[in-house]
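Example for reference:
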Amino acid sequence: MNNNFPLPAELKQKLRALAQKYENAEFLTSDPSQVLRKFSEEREQEIASFIAAQISFGKREIFLAKLNSMFEEIARNKMKPSEWILSGEYEIFFPKSENKFYRFFSYNDMNALCARLAQILQENNSLGEAVRKNYEAIQEKNSLSLVSALIWLFPEIKCVSQNADGACKKLHMFLRWMVRQNSPVDLGLWKWASAKDLLIPLDVHVMKESERLGLLAPKSSPSAKTALALTRKMAQIWPDDPAKGDFALFGLGVDVEKS
């Protein structure tokens, strides 16, 4: 389907209905977005959500168990995530080692991620403030500015995608959590950013259903270019909030997988 080709009315109606079906509080029960409301303060929500997003791939029950073990450790220390990071307590949970913590991320990799977060928090009131500074420093505002602002904050950190031209699924998911407002799922903390600038996170389910529905060409490769093409099609339905289409495509994909 051509990027500029108008979506059929029937397909638009179907996607609207699917988004309505899946974007609800129940979505949080089995999705990594359940982490968003573990803490009530915005600064803590940002830190917890960012770490969670970086290992949100693979088998959901496994990475959620890994995340919960980390949050249990923070709770045992009677700390907030930012305190746990700034105090260096994370080095006990993530001792420097080449042993794998999750999939291809080692304890060293997670330690480096936390160390960089500590630096960011020492220099800024919050992660969001740091991202905003980088975002405002980018002269040409476009759909890759937000993700670039994040990448620039984490140079050479293996857990964080380093190429804005790639799919950067985990970063786009985190941005959706932080930017989209008035959602029963997403937090919408970063009111300085626009939902218009978000790109659809290219999850396996999203890719598969997008191809099946003719939104993407068969065997499309996950990349920023593909995410932009899909997001522009979702903008035909939700011009101010195209990432809403993520719920429709992801939710449908999960249900198809279960059937």
The radius of gyration is 18 Å. The mean pLDDT is 93. The chain has twelve helices and two strands.
